[in-house]
Amino acid sequence: MIEARGHEPVLVRECLWALAVRPGGRYVDGTLGLGGHARAVLEASAPDGRVLGVDRDAELLPLARANLAGFGDRAVVWHGSYAEIGRALMKVSWRNVDGILLDLGVCSVHLDDATRGFSFSREAPLDMRFDRALGESARAWLERVDDRVLADALVTFAEERRPARVVRAIRDAIRRKTLNTTRDLADIARATMRGSRTHHPGTRLFQAIRIAVNRELDELHLFLEKMADWVSPGGRVAIIAYHSLEDRPVKEAFRRLAQGGDWELLSKKVVRPGPDETRHNRRARSARLRAIARTGVS
Ligand SMILES: C[S@@+](CC[C@H](N)C(=O)[O-])C[C@H]1O[C@@H](n2cnc3c(N)ncnc32)[C@H](O)[C@@H]1O
User: Fold this and answer.
1) What does the H/E/C string look like for 161-175?
2) Has residue 2 been placed in a domain?
3) Atom 1, ligand 1: which residue's CA is nearest?
């Protein structure tokens, strides 16, 4: 198994429970990453369960493929967004699936890769795209958007109370041609934003720009609107979110579906990792899982 340092899939047991993984089942891992969750689903659905792994980052797919090679044709990978799972299903000729898992956000391999620009603690060009073949880099986005869009992103995605200062510093740096790398942006965060006891201010600034550049919340909303088309009766959807911006739309969409009567929530409360998991896996600390089941028998 090729692993990034410190990478461990989060809430694995809980995901297997939420998806009710069983032999012969068909599952989509919509955020395949290095394949940690997919591997657990394949093991739990042996000998004949199948997983279609989807990821927007083409650069991770060979690593995931290598990690899942031992499962033969029970594991298939597809490059694209989880908002387009319908296209991936057509490729493998599945009408629908027994379960879909999303584990949102960045992989530790992204943070560790010094060329990607996701981490404020590694000097790199300001890119931050999950798919480097699509859209514009963080640097290009910062240069193009107007001040109001940038300030809105800071308020909404970084919960920044004084966005004007940050916007001004970014504009100045672009004008002076001193905003080129992650270090330059981290310096702006340090000079203009508040950190906390546990977080560098860069955490919030990088998160906001990453969400905006990848349109992460738009993709999530699209998924939530379309997912009912992809899940068989009795099938399930489980989503792990890492901050309230992601968790809120999931909670609201699941509640609406459950009120409609064709779906039921698998637990009233959000599922969080226990102390054992959070002790040895930092990333798990902010993880929250929600899951929903489509009523009816498959
Ligand atoms: C937290 S990682 C998943 C880790 C994975 N569960 C594992 O065990 O290795 C999130 C992954 O989602 C991918 N991703 C982000 N947005 C996506 C989208 N809209 N569609 C598909 N993949 C996406 C990222 O490229 C990243 O690989």
Assistant:
1) CCHHHHHHHHHHHHH
2) no
3) 107
